[in-house]
């Protein structure tokens, strides 16, 4: 921040600074802390016993398991894609580069429900290639593969979008020096590129994982809401709530809330570590 801006901010009246701080804190309390407290309060409204019973229910355990499975497949897939795409965009000039950047941003502009519907139109029984898949004994929609594909689609920008500006800022000098000294392509990536982007990569993976576990719209369309088979945690919460089983619904929702809190703490730690390393790199 320029010195003049800092001086201007410090010269503002004390009442204005306090008002802005109080407004920000009130906003956070109303729209973040209060809903979070409400989730845990409702989950524990009938005691710890009812809370635990809701979590160890067979359908709840299957929903938790499926959520972790989908995230465990989607996140590594997006990690590979994100690194490859960001490397291409940041390190090379080629025809269609702007198109690739636009396609990376596509899930941000398309509703998750629409993206799920696209998969239904492609892989459903009446879809473009659904009859062929059925003849081969392959089921995509209303099965785990559909959940994975929908989750990959809505989450694949996160890793690439964290790495592209970072790699563009770093330039290509270090990679070129490594190649001149005789390093191969994989050696250059593992020993030069990857160490330089590791914190940004971890940050992108963290955001991708948080979105994968909390995704609702796209997976809702392709899942079929089959209990114990295609219900992830967000879908299971919806079903329980619609059945007026509020304690169980908020109990499962509290697991998602705890995962969100863990993600927030890890995100803050990575931001601090990444920011400190980036500042050190700029001062070299």
Descriptive report:
It is a multi-pass membrane protein. The chain crosses the membrane at residues 65-87, 99-125, 137-160, 246-266. This is Sulfate transport system permease protein CysW. One of its GO terms (cellular component) is plasma membrane. This protein has 284 residues and is an all-alpha fold. It has helices at residues 3-10, 14-43, 48-55, 58-91, 97-104, 106-109, 112-123, 130-135, 144-155, 157-170, 173-180, 185-214, 217-223, 233-242, 246-282. It has a single domain, classed as MetI-like fold (Orthogonal Bundle), CATH 1.10.3720.10. 80% of the residues lie in helices and 0% in strands. The longest helix has 37 residues, at 246-282. 29% of the residues are buried. The mean pLDDT is 85.
């Amino acid at each position: 921040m320029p010195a003049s801006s800092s001086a201007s901010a410090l010269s503002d009246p004390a009442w204005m600074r306090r008002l802005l701080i109080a407004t920000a804190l009130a906003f956070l309390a109303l729209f973040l802390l209060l809903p979070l407290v409400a989730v845990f309060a409702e989950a524990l409204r009938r005691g710890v016993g009812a809370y635990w019973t809701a979590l160890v229910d067979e359908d709840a355990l299957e929903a938790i398991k499926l959520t972790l499975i989908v995230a465990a497949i989607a996140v590594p897939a997006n990690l590979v894609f994100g690194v490859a795409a960001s490397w291409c965009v940041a390190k090379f000039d080629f025809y269609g580069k702007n198109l690739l950047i636009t396609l990376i941003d596509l899930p941000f502009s398309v509703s998750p429900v629409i993206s799920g519907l696209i998969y239904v139109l492609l892989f459903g029984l009446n879809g473009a290639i659904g009859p062929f898949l059925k003849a081969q004994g392959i089921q995509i929609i209303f099965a785990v593969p559909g959940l994975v594909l929908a989750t990959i689609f809505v989450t694949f920008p996160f890793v690439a979008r964290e790495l592209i500006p970072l790699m563009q800022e770093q330039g290509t000098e270090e990679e070129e020096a490594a190649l001149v000294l005789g390093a191969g392509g994989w050696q250059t990536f593992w020993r030069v590129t990857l160490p330089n982007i590791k914190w940004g990569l971890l940050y992108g993976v963290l955001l991708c994982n948080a979105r994968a576990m909390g995704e609702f719209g796209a997976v809702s369309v392709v899942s079929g809401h089959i209990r114990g088979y295609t219900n992830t945690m967000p879908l299971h919460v919806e079903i329980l709530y619609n059945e007026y089983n509020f304690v169980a619904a908020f109990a499962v929702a509290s697991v998602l809330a705890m995962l969100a809190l863990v993600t927030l703490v890890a995100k803050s730690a990575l931001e601090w570590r990444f920011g400190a390393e980036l500042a050190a790199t700029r001062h070299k």
